[in-house]
């Protein structure tokens, strides 16, 4: 695993899991998504990970037009690396999921490294009432939902986005996803450095136990050697302990309202920037430095902000 003594802080601004009724602070309009992304960058995030939402209902949207309403503002107001989802929202077709990234040609795009059961239905029981009629069915439907990213879909996305110089954040929800990435590497579909995002705590993926993080790291070390950078995110209350553990192990971290709505027990985060500030304070106390956007660009081998299409 590559180490340069500094930690890349990624921040996921809105995602497609949480619904508007879960927190009044979840950004859903282009104005609020832009503001929160810029705020996270100002707080020290080197990478901002972005989804789009229907501004009226807050439902996840694949619309390139909505992305176009906030991406230029983020680029103009910050130097952060923009990382656009190719996971989109639950139930989107692969062409919908890729549309915004293919239009924007970002420095980074997320890439889920396999299909798996993705169950967030339990969240519905914790919401007293919903503001929009799509929210409860959206959550409860995941009891029968498979997050699809087959080898055919992965290869097509890698080839199409790789052709415009976009690099990937390889999202690995379980150990098998690391082997899927190794298979793609063996086929010459992607080149190092590999930015591996290990994800813990989603029902259907690997569980949020520290031993699992150690196992994921040991497996990635064996498969990728010095050709990869580990990053970690964990869902809900596991967020801060897991990302801190990643940094202690020499890895990188991801925070943001996509992954957790709270700043601490019982206290909703008002912005993703609050979580960035918190993890940077923790890392500072541990004498761990965080990378600037340009340092992160060098670590990840991205094409640079001047070469995107927005």
What labels describe this entry?
310 residues; alpha/beta; TIM Barrel; eight-stranded parallel beta barrel; globular
Estimated helix fraction: 25-40%
Distance between the termini: 32 Å
Overall structural domain count: 1
The largest pleated sheet is described as: 8 strands, parallel, barrel
- Assign the CATH superfamily: Aldolase class I
Number of strands: 16
Q: What shape does the CA trace take? A: globular
Low-confidence segments, given as residue ranges, are none
Based on CA atoms alone, the radius of gyration comes out at 18 Å
CATH top level class name: Alpha Beta
Approximate strand percentage: 15-25%
Structural class: alpha/beta
CATH topology: TIM Barrel
Strand-and-helix sequence, N→C? EEHEEEHEHEEHEHEHEHEHEEEHEH
Q: Kindly state the mean pLDDT as a whole number?
A: 97
InterPro entries: Aldolase_TIM, BKACE
Cofactor: Zn(2+)
Keywords: Metal-binding, Transferase, Zinc
Pfam family, one: BKACE
